[in-house]
Amino acid sequence: MDKFLIKGPAKLKGSVKISGSKNAALPIMVACIGYPGIYTLNNVPDLRDTRTITKLMQAIGCKIHSNKNTFIINSIDCNNPVAPYDLVKTMRASFYVLGPLLSRFKKAKVSLPGGCAWGPRPVDFHIKAFEKMGINIALDKGYVFADGELDSTVINFKTSSVGATGNVLMGCTNLDKEVIINNAAREPEIVDLCNFLTKIGMSIDGIGTSILRIKGIPNSDNKTRKITYDIIPDRIEAGTFLIAALMTKSEITLNNLIVDHIQSIIDKAKEIGAVLSMHSKNSLTIKYDKNIKAIDIKTDIYPGFPTDMQPQWISLMSVCKGESKVKDTVYFDRFSHIPELIRMGANIKLDKNIATIKGVETLSGTEVMAGDLRAGAALVLAALCAKHDTIISRVYHIDRGYEDIESKLKSLNVDIVRLK
Ligand code: EPZ
What we know:
Layout: E1 3-8, E2 13-17, H1 22-31, E3 37-42, H2 48-60, E4 63-67, E5 70-74, E6 82-83, H3 85-88, H4 98-105, E7 107-111, H5 124-132, E8 136-140, E9 143-147, E10 154-156, H6 162-171, E11 178-182, H7 188-199, E12 203-205, E13 211-215, E14 225-230, H8 235-247, E15 251-255, H9 263-271, E16 275-280, E17 283-287, E18 297-298, H10 310-318, E19 323-327, H11 337-343, E20 347-351, E21 354-358, E22 367-369, H12 373-385, E23 388-393, H13 396-399, H14 405-411, E24 415-419
Parallel strand pairs: 2-15, 3-14, 6-7, 10-11, 18-19, 22-23
Antiparallel strand pairs: 1-23, 1-24, 3-5, 4-5, 7-9, 8-9, 11-13, 12-13, 15-17, 16-17, 19-21, 20-21
Bound molecules: ligand EPZ.
């Protein structure tokens, strides 16, 4: 397993191009299964997770050609509505195939997601929604066995869920009747999925709001799709590099992002004293200013402060003057980064889902281990501003969600080496 060796403290300079969004690419790739066609997807990030979903889609019968960030997906001959455990266990997002498989084949055998790096992360919202749409679901030997005809209904999610909203949306691909989702997720990645599904012929009212009125591709229309679509940039990668600038007291420019998608992060960065200048809706410069101070935050569903930025923010607060509290209201046990940050000298106390951080002068490098994707990102950030060298193990977690991270950091003047 690869490790990163990072020499701290680093002074970043230059600019970085933000890659396509992992959490938009994964559902949009899977959505191509729902209707036969040849789909050209641009700006797909080249990640472990997009490679995993490619393998799963090929097992289902898709033909996929990719060169770096362009994927050509031919789903015309899909014929195997099965998602095996050995592929699903490495990535929870594989569960997204349930919707398109049911929509197109009226049956599916999908492994329940394996244990994620934190929490049980159930899929009960997905299952209840499809049952409400008329599907028979049996759980047996760790698999979901689903079959039946999806029908029109109203889905009321008691908690907003990105995955369950996406799965139901894709389940409606071939349903020429209305389905309403109340309390739908509004994340930009779900908006991107809705825009893709609209482009292939579905009609969706309320995109970007928490009430979606959905109608699938009309039964009268059965021509094979030939679609090209550009995936949105990754807002969490953008937020991660923004924090890297603050932790290293640097000034860098982010390009090819959607500034609007990281407004909650920008607001918090301004609140602690960062200086931001927007060059366009896709480019900004973030500059550390001397009086960075600690503030409390709590994560929330979009457009609130994203839980996927909680670990990175805790890293930042670890080296900001003052005391702060970070509360994660989406996940209550997504804190595997905290013990590792403490080993680097951070002063953090965790009580249930609230971390209390007392900023320290500097962190010091040592050997640490990435527990999951964003915890790994938090450790990279800490290593950038720590004295001496840091060795981060299990970087395969980081490779799931950050494209070419070491070459991007090197181009920002960071001394980072991947140890095979
Ligand atoms: C998506 O996961 C993202 N993953 C996660 O990003 C992100 O943290 C999460 O949304 C929240 O924004 C992808 O898009 C591939 P949820 P998802 O369903 O869909 C509970 C990253 O770092 N829940 O919105 O799994 C759940 O436990 C990853 O890129 C149920 O109880 O998240 C959580 O507490 C990590 N039952 C809350 O709802 C269900 O059936 C929100 O989860 C589904 C979810």
